C-alpha cells in the first residue's frame, strides 16, 4: 500500500509542477492579450508592470507549486522506502494539499472579485478603472483550449491522488 501512496504522491507532484510550466509557456501571450484589453479600456498597459502584476511563472507562481511538488516527492520516496514516518507525513501533507487545492479552486472561482479587491488595495487610481472581468477573460482566452481540460485533470489528480494516498496509508 505504501507503493500505491507513493505513486499517487508523485502524480500530485506532477500536477503541481504543471502549473508553472503552463504559465511559463503561455504567460507572455496572456499578458499581451490583457494589455490589448487594457488599451481597449483606455488604461495604460504599463500599469501592470508598475504594480508588479504578471501572468508568467515568476515568484510565488513557481515557488509554491514547486515546494508542494518537492514535499510530495520526498514523502513518496519515504513511502517507497517503507519508512514508518511516511504514514504520518502522508496524512499531514496529503491533507494540506487537499486544503490548498480547495483554496486554489475557490480563488479561481472568485477571481474577478479577488482581483478587483487587490486592485483597490494597490491604491493606483488607474488600476481601479480596470474592468476586471473582461481583463481576466482576455488573459484566459490567450491560453490554449487544452489548458482548461488540463486544469480539470490537474484538480482530479490532486484531489483523487491525495485521497487514494490517504486511504492507502490507512490500510497499512
Q: In this structure, how is the largest beta sheet organized? A: none
What is the rounded Rg?
19 Å
Main structural class: mainly alpha
What is the residue-mean pLDDT, rounded to a whole number? 93
The helical percent reads over 70%
Shape: elongated
Head-to-tail CA distance between termini: 6 Å
Which series of helices and strands comes N to C? HHHHHHHH
Strand content: under 5%
How would you sum up this structure, described in words?
The protein is 83% helix and 0% strand. α1 (2-40) runs antiparallel to α3 (60-81). It has eight helices and no strands. The radius of gyration is 19 Å and the shape is elongated. It is mostly helical. The termini are close together.
In short:
The protein has 172 residues and is mostly helical. Helix content is 83%, strand content 0%.
Key phrases:
172 residues, mainly alpha, elongated
Topology at a glance:
Blueprint: H1 2-40, H2 46-50, H3 60-81, H4 85-109, H5 111-122, H6 125-128, H7 132-142, H8 146-170
Helix pairs in contact: 1-3, 1-7, 1-8, 3-4, 4-8
Amino acid at each position: 500500500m505504501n507503493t500505491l501512496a507513493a505513486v499517487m504522491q508523485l502524480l500530485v507532484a506532477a500536477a503541481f509542477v504543471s502549473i508553472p510550466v503552463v504559465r511559463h509557456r503561455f504567460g507572455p501571450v496572456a499578458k499581451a492579450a490583457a494589455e490589448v484589453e487594457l488599451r481597449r479600456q483606455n488604461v495604460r498597459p504599463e500599469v501592470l508592470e508598475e504594480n508588479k502584476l504578471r501572468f508568467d511563472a515568476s515568484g510565488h507562481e513557481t515557488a509554491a507549486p514547486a515546494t508542494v511538488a518537492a514535499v510530495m516527492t520526498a514523502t513518496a520516496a519515504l513511502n517507497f522506502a517503507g519508512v514508518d514516518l511516511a504514514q504520518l507525513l502522508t496524512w499531514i501533507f496529503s491533507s494540506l494539499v487537499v486544503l490548498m487545492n480547495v483554496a486554489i479552486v475557490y480563488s479561481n472561482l472568485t477571481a474577478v472579485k479577488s482581483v478587483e479587491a487587490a486592485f483597490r488595495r494597490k491604491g493606483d487610481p488607474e488600476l481601479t478603472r480596470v474592468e476586471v472581468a473582461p481583463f481576466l477573460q482576455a488573459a484566459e482566452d490567450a491560453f490554449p483550449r487544452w489548458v482548461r481540460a488540463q486544469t480539470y485533470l490537474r484538480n482530479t489528480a490532486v484531489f483523487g491522488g491525495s485521497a487514494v494516498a490517504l486511504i492507502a496509508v490507512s490500510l497499512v
